[in-house]
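Suppose a classmate hands you a notebook page containing two proteins, each written out with its sequence and a corresponding row of structure tokens. How would you begin to make sense of it? This section walks through that situation. The first entry is reproduced here exactly as it would appear on such a page.
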Amino acid sequence: MNYTDKEKRFNRYTVTTALPYANGPLHIGHLAGVYVPADIYVRYLRLMGEDVVFIGGSDEHGVPITIKAKKEGITPQEVVDRYHGIIKKSFEDFGTSFDIYSRTSSDTHHKTASAFFKKLYEEGKFIEQSSEQYYDPEANQFLADRYITGTCPHCGNERAYGDQCEACGTSLNATDLINPKSALSGSAPILKETKHWFLPLEKYEGFMRGWILDGHKEWKANVYGQCKSWIDQGLQPRAVTRDLDWGVKVPIEGADGKVLYVWFDAPIGYISNTIELLPKTWEKYWKEKDSKLVHFIGKDNIVFHCIIFPAMLKAEGSFILPENVPANEFLNLEGDKISTSRNWAVWLHEYLEDFPGKQDVLKYVLCANAPETKDNDFTWKDFQTRNNSELVAILGNFVNRTMVLTHKYFEGKVPQRYELNDIDKSAIEEISLYPEKIGRSIENYRFREALSEMMNLARLGNKYLTECEPWKTFKTDLDRTKTALNISLQICANLAILSEPFLPFTAKKLQNMLNLEANSWTTAGKDNLLEVGHPINTPELLFERIEDAEIEAQVKKLLDTKKANEMENAVASPQKENIVFDDFAKVDIRTGTIIEAEKVAKTKKLLKLTIDTGIDKRTIVSGIAEYFEAKDIIGQQVSVLVNLAPKDLKGIESQGMILMAEDADGKLVFVSPTQKVVNGAEIR
């Protein structure tokens, strides 16, 4: 590249992003881990004038899709059609600049993946192995791991899956489960022999050791370390087919009812999507050695993109291999792991409903807090602070002050520059350094660092403007005011270019305000981007403050989600020992209404209640004072155990017991009829 390589090695770039799974919408973890850094990288390359294709798409095969379809009573195609549309729109709304965003259910992909498999099959690159796998005789099909549930042998969780126990986190084989059951029919599955094709990864172990461990020591430590761990443990054959009716059909005889394993067909989606984009010229981006292939992924996909997919490409023989796989770690949310099943996430479509027009604010915060080297945490308070203290107070403030002063003093036209003093010269020298500093950080996949440098340019502008005080010199030294605003406007023009990879909507807005034609990265760093007399448009605020109430609403939404999850997953206390019917028949429970209530003196928990039971009006002492005010429960209909032997409580004879239940937070609630009934009605 222009800044880090003495000699330019690459004439074009193929940039891919992990294919999001089409069984749910996108959340902030997806953006932070993959799509924000990838979009920054691609936008920078384009500004540098490079030949680049940016490839994305939805991953639409595999077992979770079929499970969701069965649960909703629709077809797998209907599931992926729905979520592909939602995901694609989210990317468009956030300005992710894909050259193509396609899908693995397309005809082009099925043909490409089938041809890839068939070439390797015909060249003898696979091995065939038979094994016993679980089969549901009622459903008449083999069961994928997620279609099998049973008791975890490690923690006793009775709802463990065939691939993992979500209670203790242990990875499992389906045959490890105790009392396995089919999720399709509920019956016990049987073991039945089936044949599959495997990619013998062990044959590529020596190549991987040299290519990665010796040849790519510049890869990020988390990526290099995970690859080394896998290689050092010894690579094993990996199945490339499975028994399923949803996916790319295995294109050979004797493979009825089998599809390509989703891990095998999904990365081929990068190739098929490029073919769809460039049917005549796609090969130069995938097969010519002066093309650079870069995969942007999360850490859960490192092995697939650094070992398995390269082994597939190596086995095929005509493709280039990735030059880098800058995987990120995970982003947590308010101190807890993002979870789609628990709805513990900030969904992109919901974010834009609550914060319309603030795409760049979220992208800024996610980049500034990106999990580049370790898991990081997104909090709404940090989101507010970064917006108000950085975007508004630094970048937005500098641009607004500069443009407002230009309109106030010089009718919105760039003023003449006069003799430069030391402050001017220092600022101009610093401006010239930022394109290289920011570019070098982007090229080395240090996007947080690059963003920080871009903001440092805005800080330079604020510092320069404050030191020059053009609002003071206007009356005493007009030439100084003109010079200060000229240089400040040049900084604004540089920001309009250098912010574009990070804040594309903001950069466009700034370019429009400056009446600035689109520039390339190589023109940035100059102090004459705006000519004397150049008219600028009416200034608008680039950013606006986010108030406490907006943040409190988001935090409350998450807390409500957590509370709902706790209630849903609350573990009931163990059942008491069985009683016979004659014991139950002795219990007399009636409906009643509270007609009087008062606090029992010198106690925290006790209320003295007078209850109309339909039989009589009686006194009952109940330990509910911590949860209810006496005046608030007058008229409350309750369930009363009326034949409980009287008991003296604090000198008051209590003649029965009202029935209460405890919610997930430990709060007591009344057990009451769902509609008004006569007092004294028997509960049986």
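The notebook's second entry, a different protein, reads as follows.
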Amino acid sequence: MIEIYDTTLRDGTQSEDVTCLVEDKFKITELLDELGIDIIEGGWPGSNPKDETYFRDVSTLKLNHAKISAFGSTYRANMSPQTDIIFEKLIRSETPIVTIFGKSWDLHVTNALKIELDKNLELIYESIRYILNHTDRVIYDAEHFFDGYIANKEYAMKTIKAAQDAGADTIVLCETNGGRLPREVGRIIEDVKKSVTVMLGIHTHNDSECAVANSLAAVEKGIAHVQGTINGYGERCGNANLCSIIPDLELKMNKKVIGSDNLKHLSSISRKVDEILNLRHNNHLPYVGKSAFAHKGGVHVSAILKDSRTYEHIDPLLVGNKQRVLISDLSGASNVVYKAKELGLDLKKNTSAAREVLAEIKKKENLGYYFESADASFIMMVKRALNQVPDYFRLISYRVLDERRENEKAPLVEATTRVSVNGITAHTASLGNGPVSAFDQALKAALGQFFPTLSECRLTDYKVRILVPENGARASIRVLITTKDSETSWETVGVSTDILDASKDAICDSIIYKLLKDKTKVKNGSSASV
């Protein structure tokens, strides 16, 4: 059994892009408990008011499995355990576990703390002895242990011997600077085990892209306690990523960690934590990323249709993820057929429709279209090839005026559109807070009398990318929009050298997709000018 210790709420929040409120920390605590994490390091009481509030109120959460740990350092050299108020707040946190760190590298003792080497050993021993009088368990993090061991093995070993003699339940060997390789980590752990009898743990950083590998190497050498963070958050290049370590241990090394049922929640919890922290999820994370089981090349797709093991190292369902097939200019007919089937469309591989769609994709991707994030535009392409798109409307013309008048704070933007539905013409004008907004409102107002359900639609996201920046103002522009109605949302794409023209194509596709989705039938209306 491997004990998992999560430090997302403390070490993870030291990441450059991570910040959270105390309410966010409570939500993440509950998610980590749901995942089956054994120990959750909640923060450093005394370091900031947010963490003090967390430890004051965390006991009100109904946790089913996880235990909370407070984190701090040994008491300061010019004080005692009783007079160092920051150290004393570890006791006041009243957590069942307290984790403290101390110096293992003589460089830090002499140059950072500026104290005698023997004084540091005293701080480690006395800090642990004092805390053990007030809590059930003390975990000792031996900071910079691997660097300290290589610089001065004898002294580094003395520091963890002091922690063991003081009664630390677990001694965690910390690869704090993130620069050591797995072979070094494994060799040093083998040596440490010869003289340390308590549980050993590992805490690694990712500065040389070895945090996960070093953690696994440690487990191979008998380490039974692994520390890390969700999605690998952490200072500099991050901490060891538990979203990789946990499935590696469970599925590759046959270690009991959180269990197969909890493992199925890993992908969703990885994304939920990002959402709570207002971070964009990294699609390329192993196991839990959106792209982890995504296939783009035609040869790959043809193979996985026969047997997914050909290009997938595990069944994505084991970690709550799913297989995806991408559509691009690298696609073969297999990609198109698979993707169509995934979206509920019946497209046979060796048909003129499949060949037409594939040719259209390659042509449009060459112009800058991007269908991997625009399923609705892909659906429209397939349905057009299958002659399943009714002639709902025709956009006869449109015009957008963007006028800035003297002394006015914002420009006045007006769009007019003329559309034809079954030979009936509607002519509409609308104001907006920008040209795209004005055009979108004018078009939907014109079509609304024929198709009332369009009133449910609203643009919820609008992304613009310049495809070849070196072309300056003449560059082609890709517009990706997200539209939402009362039930779902969908994405469409448009490309042009004119941003409004690209937006027009994406918006028209979005409207037609909505009408198809609702199985709308074209009805006669009356000529109107609104």
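A careful reader of the second entry would note: The two ends are 71 Å apart (CA to CA).
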